[in-house]
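Re: [help] complex structure
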Amino acid sequence: MEEDRLNKKELKLVVFALGQEEYAVNILGVHEIIKMLNITRVPKTPYYVEGVINLRGNIIPVVSLRKRFGLNEKVCDDNSRIIIGDIEGNMMGMIVDAVSEVVSLDQSDIEPPPQEASGIESSYLSGVGKLNNRLLLLLNLELMGIEKQ
Amino acid sequence: MDVSQYMGMFMDESHEHLQALNQCLLGLEKTPADLGLVNEIFRVAHTLKGMAATMGFSKIADLTHKMENTLDQIRTGETFATEKLIDLLFKCLDSLEILVDDVVSQVDSNVDVVSLMQELENFSVQEDVKASETFSENDVNSSSLELSVYEKDIIEQAIKQNFNTYHIKVKITDDCLLKSARAYMVFKNLEEIGEILSSDPSSQDIEDEKFENEFSIIFVTKEENSSVESHILSISEIESADIKDVSVDKLDDHEKASMEKMIPNNITTGMENEKKDNLNHKNEKIKTTQTVRVDIQRLDYLNNLVQEMVISKTRLDQIKTHNDFHGLGETVEHIGRITTDLQDIVMKIRMVPVEQVFNRFPRMVRDLAKDLNKKINLVIEGQETELDRTIIDEIGDPLVHLLRNSIDHGLESTEERLAAGKDEVGTVRLVAYHKGDSILIEVEDDGKGIDPDVIRSKAVEKELLTEKEAIELDDKAAVKLIFKPGFSTAKEVTEVSGRGVGLDAVETQISSLGGFVDVETEKGKGSQFIIRLPLTLAIIQALLIRINQEIYAIPLSFIDETITMNPQDIKTIQRQETILLRGEVLPLVRLSNVLNILEQDEDNQDEDLYIVIVRKGNQRAGLVVDDLIGQQEIVIKSLGDLIGGIKGIAGATILGDGHVALILDIGGII
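Output below.
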C-alpha cells in the first residue's frame, strides 16, 4: 500500500540540453532560469567555474556544466541559459545549452544511474528517467558543489 | 500553549532586561541609598518573572520571585543594600544569565537555584530582625506624611538655600461638588509660587477624586506662610488651609535615622554630588526612542534592492542622455534624489551605538578589580557613537582583551600607586569617537606605562630579535613589539590575561575588520591603545584598476600613492622585480601573474607602467596595473560559501553598469 503511494509520487523536472544528451533537475531545487549575463572571471577557482554574476544585487558563482562533465566547449548562443540552483542553501548558476520544458515524471519511471554514463562522472546523477522515448539524466544538485582549491 | 513562536522575543527581551539589571546593580553598588535604582531593579526582576512564568521557565521565575521579595524589603526600608546583598544579587544575575542561555542552547547547566534562593531567604530573615528594631524607633519621629529619601534630600537642600518648607493641610467644604477640580486649582496656584514635593493622597488619587474632604501637601517655596495661605484661600469652596513649617530639627532626626539606615558603609562624603548625578540619570532615562526589531537578513535584502535601484538609475541616466523625452530628465533626477536618500537611510539602519558592547564592561571591570584587589575607576565616553553592526559583533573580544591588559598589566597595585605618589584609584578610560571616515576607540590607563627596555630584553629572550637589532630599534618601534605573535610580558600567567594569546590576537582581529591598533605610552604615566576602524564594512572607498580587460578594486585604505614608471627602471634582485622609489627599494608584484590574467601582447615595451604603491602595516610593495580607472565608493559583497576564501580576493562589488568587479585583498597579495 505504502509503497504504491510512494511509487505514484510525481516529480516535476526542468529539462535542459547539454551536447547530445537531455538532462533534468528537480524543479524544487531551481530558483530561476536566466539568459546569459556578463560573467566576471574569478582567479584561483576550479577550471569549470566560469566566474560570478550579479543577480539583482546578489553575487552568484556560475559553473559551466559542459566543462564539469568533460564535454567540448561551446560558444554561448541565444539558446544558452543559466539555471540558478540551490546547492545546500547557496545559490549557484549552471550554464546549459538550452532549457526546453518542465515535465512530470513518475517515481516508478526512474531507474538508478547506469554504471558508465557516456563518460560523465555518474556520481553527479541520481538516476535516469524514462519519458516516452526519451532518456533524461537526472542531476543530483546536492553533489554539484564547488570543490575548494 | 505553544510558546515557541515567542522564543525569539523572550530571548531578546530577557537579554535586554539582564543588561539593565546589571547596570542598575552597578549603580546601586555606588549609591546604595538610591531607591530609584532599587525600584528599577525590582521592576526588571518583576518583568523577567512574568516573562519566564509565561514561557514556563520555572527556575528563572522562582529565582526572580525571591529576588523581588528581597528587593521589596529594600524598597520599603526594612533592609538595606549592603555590599553582601549586592554581591548576592550579582550572583543571582549571573545565574539568571546562565539560565537564559540554557534556554537557547537547550541544555541544563544545573545552576544551583535552590541554594541561591535559600541565601536570599536567609538574608531577608536576618535583616528583618534588625530592620524592625530600627524601624520602631523611627516611627516615633516620623511626621504624618511619609517622605521618600529623594524628597527629604530636596527639603534638606531647600532649607539650606533659605526656602521654606510647609506641610499644608487643605480642607474643602463639605458641599463641594467638584472636589478634584478644586484640588487641582490648589495645586496649580501653589505651583506658581513654589514646588509641590508630594501629597497625601497621591496626585493621581486626588485627580480621581479618591479622597474625602482633606488632603495634605509638602510644599517648598520662598513665600511666607501668610502669602501661601492667601493663595490657597483665594480659591472658592476651600474651607481652611492649615500651614505648618516642616522644621529642620524634626527633619534632621528623621533624616539621620533613615540615612544611617540606608547607608551601611562609610560612604557619607560626596553624597550630595551622587544624589545630583542620580537626578541627572533619571532625566536621561526618559530619552528613549521607539524601536522595531528587524531580522538583519531582511535589512540585507533591502540593502540589495536599493543598490539594484541605484544601478537601474544609472542606466536611466544613460538613456536620458541619448533620447531626452519631455520631462524624462526631471523625473530621472527626482528618482536619483530618492535613491540617494534611500541608500543613505539603509546604511544608517545598520548602524548601532557602540553602547551595546560597552555596556558589559563596567561589570567586567568591577569583577576584575575585586579579583586583583585594585581600585579602578572606569570612565566610558562616547558610547552613543555608531558603528556598523558587523563591526559591533566583532569588536567585543579585542576590547575585552585590551581592557584586561590595561587593568592587569597597566595599572599598578594600590601600594605601588601610593608609593609613586598617584591617586590610589586607577583610572581606565574607554572612549569612542568619530574622526573623518573612521571610528576611533581608545583604551587608556594611568598606570605604569610600557618600558621599551623591558620590551627589548623580552623580545631578545623570546628570540624575536637579535640583541643588536633590539638596540637599534627606537623606543616607539620597540613598544610596538608587543603586537608580535609569541610576545607576552606577563611574568606569570594570571587568570585575567596572559593566557598565551597576546596582543597579536587583538591586532589580527582588528585588521580583519579593516582597521588597525596603535599604542602610545609614557613610562610612569600610563598607556593608550588606539583602535581605528572604518565607519562601515559595507561601503568603502576604492581605486578601480584595469588589467587586460578585467576590472578590480583596491581598497583606498591600503594605497599610499600611484606612480608611473618606465619599464627600464625595473631592477631584478634575486629573481624579484623591484623598483626604487625615493631611495626605498620596493618589491614589484605583477597582478596579471598573481591573478592568472593572460598578458597583453608585449609590443609596447617602452610605455610607462602604472604602479599602485600599497601598504600592509610596515610592508610596502608596488602593483603593476594596465590602467587606473578612478576612485569610487563601492559596496562590499561576499563571494559566498561556494567559492569564498580565495587568497588575494576580499570580495566582490557591483559596478554602475551592473558588472561584478572583484576586490583585492592586499594582505593576501604582498
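Chain A has a mean pLDDT of 85.
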